[in-house]
C-alpha cells in the first residue's frame, strides 16, 4: 500500500444555514484499500462524499490528490481527476444499451473508433470480472447488472477512487457476494474504494479501514482487524447500544387479514401481483422478502386501499376491502396504518412541520370550521421525546431533517392511532443501525399489544430475527411462505430468484 494517500481531506467543513453538516473532518484514503464510512443518519456522510465527488464545494479545509492540492468545482471536474461515484439511485438511461450509457457525454463521438472503444471496454470487463452485455438495454437488466454497468461506466472514464453509496440495499445475498468479488478485484488492481453501508456484517466482511462520523465530526479511524460491530456502533451513537432483536412467539390463532388469489395491476396496467394468497394473525409479524420491484409495493398499496385490485379478495376482520379507499377505511372503523416506501411524497409533506403532518391523518374528522391544534401539538411533543426525534422544533419543516428522523415522525404518527394492522414497506431503508433497532423495538411493542404487522424488508437476517413467517415474492408471485426458524439466507436468496422449488 502506498504511504502517500490517493486523496487526503484536511479540516473539511460545510454548513447549510445554521446546520454544520461537516466540521473539521480529516480523512485519508489510500490506493488498494476499501475504506468504510459509518455514522448515524445526519452524521455528515452524504455531505462528505458530495464534497469528494464535486457536488459541493467545502466552506473550509483542503483536499489533496496524490499529494497535490485540488479543488473540485463540479462532478465532471472530480471525474477528470479520477473520482467515480455510484449512488443508491442509478444514473442510467433505461432506453439505451449498456454501450450507449458508457459512452454518453464522452467527447469525440463523431470520429470515434468503435472497434477500439469496444476493445477497451471489454478489457475492463475481463480485468474486473464484470458481468455486462454491451448490447443489452438497461430496462431489461436486473439490479445487479445495472450496478455492474455503473461500475464499468466510471472505470471506463478513468476512476481511480470509487465511492459506493449503500450499494447492496436491494441485493440478494448472491448479488452482494458478486459485488464483493468485483470490489476485491478492484482493490487488487490498485483502486481505492469508499464503501458506505448501514449493514455492519458487510462492513466487517469487505473493508480494510473504517472511519466513523458523528454529528458532522470524525470520531476515529480503525483497522477492521482491531475492532468489532459493538465498538463501532457505540462510537457511532456515543453510548452503549443493545443490538439484539427479541422475537416473542405469536400464539394467536385469530386471522386478522386474509388475502386470497390477489391480482393487482401496476401503472403500466400489467400484473404486478399475480394471484397471491396468505393470511396474518393478530400479534404476528409477517415478513415479505424479494428483489426490489417484485410486486411488494403494489401488494402493500392494494391492502391499504391505494391501488386498485383486478381480482381476488382482501378481507380484514370479516369485511372485504376491495374497492374501498383509505378515507372509507377510517369512516368504517377499519383500524389500519400504512408506512409507505416513499416517506416524503406518499407518507409525509416535506414543507409541513410535525404538527401539520400529524393533522393530515385526522383533519377531515374535525367538527366545525376551526381545527383544534393544541392536542395534536401535545402528541407531536410526546412522539418527539419518545422516539428521540432530532429537530429544532415541532414547528420546523421536516424536509430539512435526516431520513431517520423523518421516518420516526411517520412511524410515530401511524403508531399513535394504535392500529390493529400495521403495513410497513422498507421502514428501515437507509437508516443507521441505532434508528433501525429503535424501529424493531417499536414493532415488537406493537406486536405485544396484538397488532398484526406486515413487514416488507431487505435485510434477510432482520427478517429471520423479527418475523414469525416470511413470504418470498419473485416477479409478482409468491415463491412460498416459510417459518422464520426454518429460513436461511441461502434458501431465501434462492427463493427470491425463483430457483427454489
Automatic annotation (TrEMBL):
UniProt cross-references to SMART domains, sorted A to Z: AAA
Source species, domain of life: Bacteria
GO cellular component, one term: plasma membrane
Name of protein: ABC transporter ATP-binding protein
Keyword Lyase among UniProt keywords: no
Domain ABC transporter intervals: 7-240, 257-500
Keyword Isomerase: no
Predominant place of localization: membrane
Molecular function GO labels: ATP binding; ATP hydrolysis activity
Compartments, as annotated in UniProt: Cell membrane
InterPro entries: AAA+_ATPase, ABC_carbohydrate_import_ATPase, ABC_transporter-like_ATP-bd, ABC_transporter-like_CS, P-loop_NTPase
Topology with respect to the bilayer: Peripheral membrane protein
Keywords, sorted A to Z: ATP-binding, Cell membrane, Membrane, Nucleotide-binding, Repeat, Translocase, Transport
Amino acid at each position: 500500500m502506498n504511504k502517500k494517500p490517493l486523496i487526503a481531506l484536511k479540516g473539511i467543513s460545510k454548513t447549510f444555514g445554521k446546520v454544520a453538516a461537516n466540521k473539521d473532518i480529516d480523512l485519508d484514503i489510500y490506493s488498494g484499500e476499501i475504506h468504510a464510512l459509518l455514522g448515524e443518519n445526519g452524521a455528515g456522510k452524504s455531505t462528505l462524499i458530495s464534497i469528494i465527488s464535486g457536488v459541493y464545494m467545502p466552506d473550509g479545509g483542503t483536499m489533496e490528490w496524490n499529494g497535490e492540492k485540488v479543488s473540485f468545482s463540479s462532478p465532471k471536474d472530480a471525474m477528470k481527476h479520477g473520482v467515480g461515484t455510484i449512488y443508491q439511485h442509478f444514473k442510467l438511461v433505461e432506453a439505451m444499451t449498456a454501450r450507449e450509457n458508457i459512452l454518453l457525454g464522452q467527447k469525440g463521438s463523431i470520429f470515434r473508433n468503435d472497434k477500439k472503444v469496444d476493445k477497451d471496454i471489454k478489457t475492463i470487463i475481463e480485468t474486473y470480472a464484470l458481468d455486462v452485455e454491451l448490447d443489452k438495454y438497461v430496462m431489461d437488466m436486473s439490479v445487479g447488472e445495472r450496478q455492474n454497468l455503473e461500475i464499468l461506466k466510471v472505470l471506463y472514464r478513468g476512476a481511480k477512487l470509487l465511492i459506493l453509496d449503500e450499494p447492496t440495499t436491494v441485493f440478494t445475498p448472491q448479488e452482494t457476494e458478486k459485488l464483493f468479488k468485483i470490489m476485491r478485484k478492484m482493490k487488487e488492481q490498485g483502486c481505492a474504494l469508499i464503501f458506505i453501508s448501514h449493514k455492519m456484517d458487510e462492513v466487517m466482511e469487505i473493508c480494510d479501514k473504517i472511519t466513523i462520523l458523528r454529528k458532522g465530526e470524525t470520531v476515529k479511524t480503525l483497522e477492521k482487524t482491531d475492532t468489532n460491530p459493538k465498538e463501532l456502533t457505540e462510537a457511532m451513537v456515543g453510548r452503549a447500544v443493545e443490538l439484539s432483536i427479541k422475537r416473542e412467539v405469536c400464539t394467536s390463532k385469530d386471522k386478522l387479514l386474509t388475502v386470497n388469489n390477489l391480482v393487482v395491476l401496476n401503472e403500466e396496467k400489467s400484473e404486478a401481483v399475480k394471484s397471491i394468497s396468505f393470511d396474518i394473525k393478530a400479534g404476528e409479524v409477517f415478513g415479505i422478502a424479494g428483489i426490489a420491484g417484485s410486486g411488494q409495493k403494489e401488494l402493500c398499496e392494494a391492502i391499504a386501499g391505494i391501488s386498485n385490485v383486478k381480482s381476488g379478495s382482501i378481507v380484514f376482520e370479516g369485511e372485504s376491502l376491495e374497492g374501498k379507499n383509505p378515507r372509507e377505511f377510517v369512516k368504517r372503523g377499519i383500524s389500519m396504518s400504512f408506512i409507505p416506501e416513499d416517506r416524503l411524497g406518499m407518507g409525509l409533506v416535506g414543507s409541513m412541520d410535525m404538527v401539520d403532518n400529524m393533522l393530515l391523518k385526522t383533519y377531515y374528522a374535525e367538527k366545525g370550521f376551526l381545527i383544534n391544534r393544541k392536542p395534536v401539538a401535545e402528541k407531536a411533543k410526546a412522539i418527539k421525546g419518545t422516539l428521540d426525534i432530532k429537530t429544532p422544533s415541532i414547528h420546523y419543516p421536516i424536509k430539512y431533517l435526516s431520513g431517520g428522523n423523518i421516518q420516526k415522525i411517520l412511524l410515530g404518527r401511524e403508531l399513535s392511532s394504535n392500529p390493529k394492522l400495521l403495513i410497513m414497506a422498507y421502514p428501515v431503508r437507509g437508516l443507521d443501525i441505532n434508528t433501525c433497532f429503535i424501529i424493531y423495538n417499536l414493532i415488537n411493542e406493537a406486536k405485544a399489544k396484538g397488532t398484526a404487522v406486515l413487514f416488507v424488508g431487505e435485510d434477510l437476517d432482520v427478517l429471520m430475527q423479527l418475523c414469525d413467517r416470511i413470504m418470498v415474492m419473485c416477479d409478482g408471485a409468491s415463491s412460498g411462505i416459510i417459518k422464520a426458524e426454518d429460513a436461511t439466507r441461502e434458501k431465501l436468496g434462492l427463493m427470491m430468484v425463483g430457483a427454489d422449488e
